[in-house]
């Protein structure tokens, strides 16, 4: 609308200057000027519009790039956090396994020590109990008692325990030695009889 206003202002100025009706040349000049002026105005408007659109597009691209970068950064942080949690779990599991292994090793060591101590006690008890037997069966258990009984050295623990318990109960009387053997084992409890039987079974 401003372009047409400018045109008419030029038109009225021309009228004042001439003071009479416009000539054909003057009219054509005004029309040409108006057309040129209008064209320049439209070009300026188009340029401004294009500049605004370009700015909007650039801003949109920048916003998209910022959003993408933020998402990528967030994903990277989340991934790093997951790795940290996993590493912590693995470290805790490794520590737990090491502790379990150490405990197992300690238990085995204790078990071995206890077993060794028990074996030593049993052997000592069996040796002490055998002192009563050595007079008839010999120090190595290979003498036939009264020249009649079989050699007892190396017999199985189970057989020896069974025979000694029968002598103690008075239900065994091999080779007429029932009463003698009963007197020998009368004061022995089951633990002592077992220790004695183990001791004799290991004689070779």
Give the tags.
Cytochrome Bc1 Complex, Chain D, domain 2, single chain, rod-shaped, mainly alpha
What would you note in describing this structure?
- There is one protein chain.
- With 204 residues, the chain is mainly α.
- The chain is built from 6 helices and no strands.
- The longest helix has 107 residues.
- The N and C termini lie far apart (133 Å).
Please provide the ordered H/E string of secondary-structure elements: HHHHHH
* Record field, number of beta strands: 0
Low confidence ranges: 18-22
Q: Mean pLDDT score, rounded? A: 80
| Terminus-to-terminus distance | 133 Å
> What Rg, in angstroms, do the CA atoms define?
60 Å
Question: What portion of residues belong to β-strands?
Answer: under 5%
Largest sheet: none
Query: Which overall shape is indicated by the principal axes computed on the Cα atoms?
Result: rod-shaped
Class per helix and strand makeup:
mainly alpha
State the domain count. Answer: 2
Number of helices: 6
Helix share, percent: over 70%
């Amino acid at each position: 609308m401003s372009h047409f206003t400018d045109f008419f202002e030029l038109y009225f100025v021309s009228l004042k200057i001439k003071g009479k009706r416009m000539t054909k040349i003057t009219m054509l000049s005004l029309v040409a000027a108006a057309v040129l002026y209008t064209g320049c105005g439209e070009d300026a408007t188009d340029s401004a519009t294009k500049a605004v659109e370009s700015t909007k597009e650039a801003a949109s691209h920048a916003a998209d790039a910022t959003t993408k970068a933020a998402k990528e950064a967030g994903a990277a942080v989340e991934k790093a956090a997951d790795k940290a949690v996993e590493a912590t779990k693995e470290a805790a599991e490794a520590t737990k396994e090491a502790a379990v292994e150490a405990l197992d090793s300690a238990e085995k060591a204790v078990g071995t020590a206890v077993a060794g101590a028990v074996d030593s006690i049993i052997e000592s008890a069996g040796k002490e109990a055998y002192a009563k037997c050595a007079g008839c069966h010999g120090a190595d258990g290979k003498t036939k008692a009264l020249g009649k009984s079989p050699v007892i050295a190396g017999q199985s623990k189970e057989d020896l325990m069974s025979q000694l318990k029968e002598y103690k109960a008075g239900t065994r009387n091999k080779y007429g030695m029932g009463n003698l053997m009963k007197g020998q084992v009368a004061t022995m409890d089951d633990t002592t009889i077992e220790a004695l039987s183990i001791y004799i079974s290991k004689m070779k």
